[in-house]
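Aim 2, interim progress. The first record below pairs a target sequence with its structure tokens.
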Amino acid sequence: MDIYEEQKMVAIYGLVGLGALGWGTSPHVRCASLLLVPKMLGKEGRLFILGYALAAIYAGPVANLQHNLNEVIASLGCTVEHQIKNARAAWRISTAPLRAVFKDLLSSRASLKAETKNISTSFEDLDAQVNSEAGFVPEDAADSEETAQGAQARGAPRSRLHLSTQKMYELKTKLIREER
């Protein structure tokens, strides 16, 4: 029962007082209380004591175990919530520099496009020079060993002669130097 300690003490003293009063005044109370002892040792008494013991076990260790399991569940839930919160914070912190770079890139998009266009126009002259065939005759490259096909190019027809852009530029530069 969920009663205060003082109330339990009053109830116990009251029962002891009634028992003492009954024992002192009534032979029926004395006889009934003496017959309780063999009754408690019998089948019904053992069941009563077993029920009382099970109720005490349920009220004590089982209730404590149930309370502890509830606390473990709450603790695990709290731990998982903290881990999720900390993982989110760590992710935000670790990606903050990257997000700042992207934000900066997006804010300077127009200037980046202008710089890219300036770079492209700066290399147009060099690109045109590399791709031009001024001062270069493919027949002169057939005698060179620096063609993309190597020694096989000498026996191949002139139409199948293929040079990489870099080799072509090197040969043009060599031929221009030889003419000077």
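The second target in this work package is listed in the same format:
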Amino acid sequence: MPEVNVGNASSFSDPGRKVFEVSGQEVGVFLLAGEFYAWENRCPHLDGPACQGRLLALATEAVNEDRTSRGREFSKEHMNIICPWHGMEFDIRTGRHPTNQAIRLRKVPLRVERGEIYVTLRGA
């Protein structure tokens, strides 16, 4: 499993992402709240380019004590990647779908050393 330098950490905005192709594998690297995360750019639904989709805060329904709706609220802690093919959402930090925890993106090992980002590719 080769480790590859994909660039300088300071080149990322927060929140932000870059998608890299290395040896035929696409990897999405994300920066969120000062932490880096890396995922294979393959949606588990139909292999769409999940890491290239929109970044959007998790939306939840705000409910009053009498169980009436106040409308949508957007999380300040959870940011999702939305696959551009069919709208599947995945938490940037965990790679998991927000309602079906069995569906998730495949994690790519990542480390940051001396300001450089390294990912470990799967069996290339």
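The two ends are 6 Å apart (CA to CA). This observation will shape the mutagenesis plan for the next reporting period.
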